[in-house]
Please model this.
Amino acid sequence: MRAPILKVALVALNIGEHRSLALGYVRAYAQSEPSLAGVAGFVTLDLEAETDPWWVTYRLSRMEPDVIGFSVMCWNARAVYDACRFLRLVLPDVYIVLGGPEVGPIAEEVLDENPAVDAVVRGEGEEAFAELLLALSKGRSPGRVEGVTARRDGKIVSAPDRALIPDLDALPSPYLSGALEPLDGVAYIETYRGCPQRCGYCYEGKGFGRIRSFSQERVEAEVAAVASAPGVRTFTFIDPIFNLTRERLEWLTALMEPHARRGIGLHTIEVDIERVGAEEAAMLRRAGVISVETGPQSTGTAALEACRRRFDRERFVSGVEALKAEGIAVECDLIVGLPGDRPDDVISGMDFIAGLDPGRLQMSTLHVLPGTDLWDRAEEFGLVYNPAPPHEITLTREIGFPDLRRLEVMGKALMEHYRARA
Amino acid sequence: MLGMQHVSLGNGVAVACRRCGRPTETSYLAAAAVKDDLDRAHAAGPAPTLLLCGPEPFDHPDLHGIVTHAVRSGFPRVGLRTSGVALAQGGTASEYISAGVRFVEVEMLGGSNGSHDELSGLAGSFDAALAGIAKVRAAAEAEGVRFALRGRVPICRHTLQESPGIVAVLAKAGMSSVELACPPNMVSAAASEWLCAACDTGTVNGVWVAISGIGPESLGPCVLHANDVLQPQGGVS
Ligand code: SF4
Model:
């Protein structure tokens, strides 16, 4: 058989043992694209974000790829940029493409600041990346591919945005296609894209707005494949809201129940806890849910308003209690540094979540992410953040730099003391 | 935040500043009496954290039985306030981690062996305390249990200026938080400066430093440090 024209390496620098679902989708789509058959061959490299960029470069240089695609998030962006710089030195002719929520919304800046990078895929990457490969294979400029920003004749050019993929079933499943192997604890299934909420710090609701779902048949086939994969005891759904609707929850419960009876568990499912009552909690238990993740992110009225989040204290408490009664651990998350929150609001939030004794507390610092409402309105809200990734908040109108750092340390101590239990 | 019930093992304290002339006499309650107190504390609604305090716990003749009783009663976090010295000895650290201790609060008076040993009147106690802290951390790690450490500095005019150094040492030793326990009369601009320096030392080293005993109005720019992640809640002492 003829060797493919393009050797494509897809690289993710992950947290711990995680595997990039995004690259699984990108690879599954490109591999199934008839126009790329015999044109491109793929290899995926999942490494840890702490991996020395020289080692990343070494691994990739040994593969002698023609194209390297990185999945970029705020927390691995610096590592990716370092690796790109070294790769350019070692592989001067390789074509380097970045994609992901960290780079898509600021594609031109990323190319401007990172001369080693050739192109950025904006928004959903599956179709755009496949077309970019096709353009490269034909010697055409990827800068004309919709949803791509690239260098052309020494300039940075952005082709028009690409419309969202209307029918998600058109995307081959990473698991069913073999592009991604389901591994215990780090396999994720997505049943829909988009989010009905519009939280100001999140790109999900803003970037992908409208909800698009995979068909039930498709999800059922993926669940069957993942839940029966050798060695898999737990996995998760990465849907922004698992209990999006009552009907959906009933369907997913019925789908998961037989697997749960065999001991398969679901961890860190994101739920809208204010819509969890005794019945919903019982359903989640039957679905094999071990732990859920939820807000409130803040309990301060001004911050909730600025971030367009609703919070009903009573409903929140009753949701946590309902889940605890079913033996499901709840992770309550708070973000330090939201606009509108004063130090007392953050401390009240800590008091609130600690008082719930939910099972796990998670305090994090606001990252003002490209493509989010807070990124766009930072000046209006008086947010000062690190322009370099991961874009941590530095000070807000309500909280100065020293107090933000103090609150972070206080939050860390709370988490550590909370975790230490029989 | 996390409520903490104090249950005392007797009269006296684990570590006292000798220069202040505080009485160093200690006496212990019988195990049965402590267990009764534990039962009462539990019946009052168990706080998330239980701290066995008072005189040096490891000198109590039935500490193991008391800890076991507390764990069996259902306190989710059983803690000990100690000089830390005994934790360095033999298998003590492992024994108490196995018994269910999930929280140790170590009292320090100085940030070096010279100052701590002199103020506590116990030669070698600074090095022994650090060795004990390292040992109990290792024991928790070996058992795979989730465990937290906290420092406590009984502030007096002799320990005040030591406090930034103590916090630095405790941060390096792996504490999650440090309490600077002040007497109510410790209100002066100079005192606040030292306390703030200790708080800042904690912040830059990632350890929360809480000031207790004096009102937030005396803390100036460090007013946030009037907040503690562990808060006294209806103890029996
Ligand atoms: S934070 Fe969650 S609920 Fe809010 S927009 Fe993002 S995905 Fe949706």
